[in-house]
């Protein structure tokens, strides 16, 4: 026993004095690489990373206009270590700090207290980092963000690991006698991460607000995308094996029934072979593709083509791509190495000739996520000719496909808008919207809200429903997302599939068409300022606790502020959207501080409180903030060049201004200054509201004939 | 266009000629390290691995008695590569080869066509390698196994990746026109693996049969465990906060109701504090632990103690363990570094004094799996004093706890038997049975079957049920597992919880008590020969297709042979168990080739065919193979030293022999030869069966007074 004790003492003496912090070094080489954005290099980072691969250029000019931000963290608390071929990172956390982000999660928006392994793959029902866009960027309620620029499967312990060298230590609790207070995950005071690479570039993104941190992160990667105007209309993806005549008949049916449609999406059947792909038109189903596309163009309807990356041996470009692809096949198709210019050159050349030149507007790029649980993808062991490893390529694949297709259109000074199943950091400026095969409506909305933290876009596409109520609710929600779409690939559903709710469905699609100027301005703010179009309430300064609690209402409101709000969100600056899920007879809606008004009636709804509503089927509840302007055009079923009058709906009583954006809607000329911001200004003289519409001298609008203000709220 | 083509050609010229096999080298340094077992070193393996950590010694003598085995694979097809701090491996596969193993999976036994990341963690409902015992060993229907001796999170693509340099290439199929034949996962002709380490030791394990490969693998790690006889009785784990008086009352209730019980398990409430643990008796609930344990011992009932690894600040050994633990806490408790002798020394010393010395028989070691999805465990970033990394430690933790506790008992020449929630390769000789919080009955049985491929044991413990039928079915199944247990930690359930089925439940527990000699012999075969006690049908040579198909029955049988059989299994050589799940009114039972007989009646049941049965609630269907002997003793409610008469039930008509095993049932003296194999031999003279019972001259049995043969099957 004595001998034993002695041997322990010897061992203790042999251990380094600080056995706990061994190897962890403070990260000291921070550089302000962009206004309010600092980066540091730890170890020897990979030669390829998100920002290099995307090639997106920081919007320095826009970043310069933002409020000043100091380095937001205690530098002495940011630690790193490389050992064993891996890089370990530690960032500090305050006890009252909330964390958001890490990409497209479906179950919760608050990520603190959870562990993630960021791995692109089809979402399988668990928020563990396995998803279509596991972006390694998180933002804090304290108004900063952290971004790990590494295309690897990164492990993130978000406030879940408790280090013995931490200053704040949770207390041990006896579960036997104090089960009530025992917690599964004692709160840690840090975010620990592991990057399986010899080194890494990390970014700390300043605020001062959480929205500023998100905006800075988006601007770092080139700002958000600005879709062409037609992209904000209604999309109909027809069943996979439809022929060109069946598609034409479907379009005729939209006209006959007076339903809007702007884009027709063709699913795999347009190709001569698919899974793997030839990218060539099938001559039986589409004997005259150019004529078909042109006929739709004449009706102001664009055509979008489905594809995936895996190249069929029957494809005309297969031979050229053989030396430019990975050493594993998927469904017997090649996996092109998209990091190589030669690869994208071969493909772009073919796509230009056979798709773009006949008028194709864009793509839906499927299956770049993979589903390792189902057992298919190229494995991490895959060699690519560029030397990029299988795991790096997996994390980059969807983004690289976005990049080369965007470039192809950009070279024609033509904007595109499309869909992609995998994305990641660095892709904010690429005009693609994420989707997947999962289909929980509430979870789809959580994903929509989460997209706002991570520089990605998401569509809760409608595919099918078991009843009319669900159909309406899904259609209503998707019309307040970046891409309003019915995807009938396999369901064969039509917007009018449920007879009893045709009016409700048509109404919300038409409302989206009327809101086009509002949506477009919202996207312009994404492109120019990095402010995401869809926004979690947690990005709003108004969504904060009340210091003074005067009544039950106040405490209820404060309780909601700390909850994970997964069923309401903002679109743009002014519109609060409350999607309703089938079966909900009533809903508690939390309204941030400030007066809010019903969009439809203009009536006062509440202020910093939780209201209970009983939604009717015909409307998705929408609220406008005090002073909010919602510009609306008359209903049109397609997006055209026709100039239209604008109704400027004004809500509430606050002086305000709204900078309505306009440009040609389809080219990149706006990047050369060819755009206009029309100031919609409201002032007050006594109790009287004075509205003015100011087009800067010498500028013009592309889309509007006239402006008419409409006060939606009765005078006090 | 021309220019563009030229640049591709230049690029092609610059690529290495064999761009696909770049870096992959044939593994050439194979050494036959044990009879029929070859190992090779690739790169620079970790300093700690499964076999080193477990310290288990190969059973060379037993391996020498096995049939000769040649190296079972084409060596030129085994490739490896180390790059980027990782090791990549490739093993060949034949098109008609089935794969099994990779540890404790719950949804399927056939692993080919799936991808796994072997990561110890609470099973979450998906067979993706995340489980309590993700053993990196697979066996093939071709009669060999592959074992990766690396305590890392290993990625396994089991016949799912298709390499372009493979000889067999799946055809591209057009899903548009040939959906019926299109498959999600085209069959690959290899197993590819990635080990996140600079190198690795790999083993190829010969057959010639699949069962031989499993046995060799088990013998490599010291053979299977031989539990003490009492361990094979019935276990009752009482509610967590029971006092010693409540436990005593429960034992009295077992007696009064005439239900067997051999072991009482105490859950966290026996400790003064738990979650984290003090390992000290709670003085309010257990004021006189020694007296309590001794009183139960007097009734031939053992006591097993729950614990987990995380040490409470209130524990007497906390201070000593501070320098011997990782730099992260769990539930504010220390995570001891069990790779250090000093650590296990401190703990063993305390356990001996406070547990073993007063008669505690063993442990249930909980929570060493972790649940990263819930957000708790020490993260991979954790530093341990020994230099073992967090991920290595995670893969080893449960095994290391088994090792030190086994050693503690072995030092007293005392066998233990207990439960553990995490295990891995190298632990076959440790007398621990896996369990978890998951509770699907069918999936529990799949896990039981899977345990047979991987040198692990599993109990489908009964905890609670929503109805009497489920209760009976669970009790019946658990009585044919390595550990027959009711776990009432939180449910408070009793064996007699469902009044209407008390007889059925008591019957099956008593049947298990009667079968003790059979179970014990089965475990002896595990210990001496490496043959697992529970066995998948796929381990039997009789479970193979019929070459000649004469009728519908034959084709149905052949169809079942290729199916994933997850609802029947063998216990030992002779007994086919068909656990029934609640709600099943009928069941198709596949009987391997050879005659099979009903255990209860001795009637002929079938031969190489699928029979349909309508199980009654009172019995779990059991079948005995032709010539099978089932030794049975009279019903006793405890396992004691009392010598008992044995009934030798004989089924069918085939000449056979069965080597009944016996020893003192509690010490390791059997390792020094103090055991007996009693030959139960049946020969045939004309149509007449002749039975003989041969005890080798000069030897004795410890447990039996007399033997009486009973022919269960009527003469033909």
TrEMBL record, chains A, B:
The lineage of its organism: Bacteria, Pseudomonadati, Bacteroidota, Sphingobacteriia, Sphingobacteriales. Residues 563-630 form the Glycosyl hydrolase family 31 C-terminal domain. GO terms for biological process: carbohydrate metabolic process. It comes from Mucilaginibacter yixingensis. Pfam families: DUF5110, Gal_mutarotas_2, Glyco_hydro_31_2nd, Glyco_hydro_31_3rd. This is Alpha-D-xyloside xylohydrolase. Residues 85-152 form the Glycoside hydrolase family 31 N-terminal domain. It comes from the Bacteria. Residues 226-521 form the Glycoside hydrolase family 31 TIM barrel domain. Transmembrane segments: none annotated. GO terms for molecular function: carbohydrate binding; hydrolase activity, hydrolyzing O-glycosyl compounds. The keyword Oxidoreductase does not apply. Belongs to the glycosyl hydrolase 31 family.
